[in-house]
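Q: Here's a chain of 210 amino acids. Please give me its 3D structure as tokens.
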Amino acid sequence: MYIPKQFRKEDSAEIIEFIRSHSFGVLFSQHEGMPTATHLPFIVSTKDDGTITLLSHMAKANPQWRSLDSQSGLAVFTGPHAYVSASWYEEKNTVSTWNYISAHVHGKMEIVQDENSLKTILKEATDFYEKGFDKPWKLEEHEVTVDSMLSGIVGLKMQVEKLEGKWKLNQHHTNVRKERVIEQLKKQNHYDSKEIARLMETELNRRNKG
């Protein structure tokens, strides 16, 4: 991913937290000489030694998995985004743009097919997405149903080799311009304008304090 220095997020912990909050991503890889992509939910697993793993699963009917084992993969996660009009700067020689947050994860892929490991991946995913529900669905209470469907899926593990975070929030503009953009974004009801305004405000306050 092309990331100008001013937009690069260096803090791995922040990138991981972003992925956990926007965990429905896209897995890209080469399959039979063609770029191939599948939309998937991912669970982030971290260890004390700094190892990071992404966990997911896909249908066996999807041919992408057949060329994944031991190959490189790219998982892309997108967050809030919003259009920024040049008119909001109230200055000449400016252009419109798009502000957004995204993360790219590169790593070596592993295919998981043994039932115990596959069920572990499914349980981690279920527990993650069900937390906070009044009556969370628990895999261990529906093992007969789950077992009957295991033959139709494969588990995926990505051993993360590189994390990239891009926080494009007008960092290269003056504080006055940023404040004008924030004010206008708060008035918008399309895209993720209000969330981008909040993130810009947080970034602006952080830099001012620093």
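Q: Can you summarize the key feature?
A: Residues 5-81+101-169 form a domain with the Pnp Oxidase; Chain A fold (CATH 2.30.110.10).
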